[in-house]
Amino acid sequence: MSDPKAFIIHLERSVQRRPQVERLRAALPCASEMLDATDGARMAQDEIDRIYVRRLHRPVYPFALNRGEVGVFLSHRAAWRRILAEGLDYALIFEDDAEIDAEAFARTCALARQSREHWTYALAPSEKTPVRGQVLTRAEGVALIRPDSPPLRAIAQFVSAPAARRLLEVTESFDRPVDTFLQMSWVTGVELLAFQPSGVRDASGSLGGSTIQAKRKPLAQKLARETLRPVYRAQVRLWHALARRPAL
């Protein structure tokens, strides 16, 4: 098994986040590299139209992606390609608003290595994202869990080469944000597991908030999103449960 490497996705013009990237790199227990994010705001519309295709998968994602979300998805695809290009057994992929407790995250990394035969893709959710489900293995207070409901936010992930290869194959076109897509094991063929507690924190609040939010939406559009979001999430939970049901 090769030593893992960390890729930290960072948008060059988000200069206020660069110090956080450097702090994260200094705290990590493995080699790391800053990976330039794809800037969706600078993409040509015809380029976006070639890869972003609405209503590709079920359940249907009810919202249109903004340019930032398209750029984030392409940035994760770039990280998956690097895993394969460098011949890594697995890599850690971070978004640039991730912050870690170095000691706690080192325990997560140790369990990831020890339990490698159990996972191909595993999230390391932030401490504000509790995960409940079947514990597959545990060591030093950290558990590898098969979630009852797949969590959101791909703030930190452990991605194996087989998972990276498969995810690249099924995302030549996409219709929803990357973290939402990764929930869909019935489409990806990649089971989403999670480490809990992971030692990861979301530092976006102290960094000026999200870099991918579109301009302020009209009230009617905001109300529609608030109505449709829980409906969509309930559909994901249902499809997730059906995908896990044993065949008769």
Write the layout of secondary structure elements.
Layout: E1 5-10, H1 18-27, E2 31-36, H2 45-51, H3 67-85, E3 90-95, E4 98-100, H4 102-114, E5 121-123, E6 133-139, E7 142-147, E8 156-160, H5 161-170, H6 178-182, H7 185-188, E9 192-196, E10 200-202, H8 219-244
Parallel strand pairs: 1-2, 1-3, 5-9
Antiparallel strand pairs: 3-8, 4-10, 5-8, 6-7, 7-9
Helix pairs in contact: 3-5
Explain this structure to me?
- The protein has about 250 residues and is α/β, with parallel strands linked by helices.
- It has a single domain, classed as Spore Coat Polysaccharide Biosynthesis Protein SpsA, Chain A (Alpha-Beta Complex).
- About 40% of the residues lie in helices and about 20% in strands.
- The protein has 8 helices and 10 strands.
- The strands form 2 sheets. Strands 2-1-3-8-5-9-7-6 form an 8-stranded mixed β-sheet, sandwiched between helices.
- It is globular, with a radius of gyration of 18 Å.
- It starts with a strand and ends with a helix.
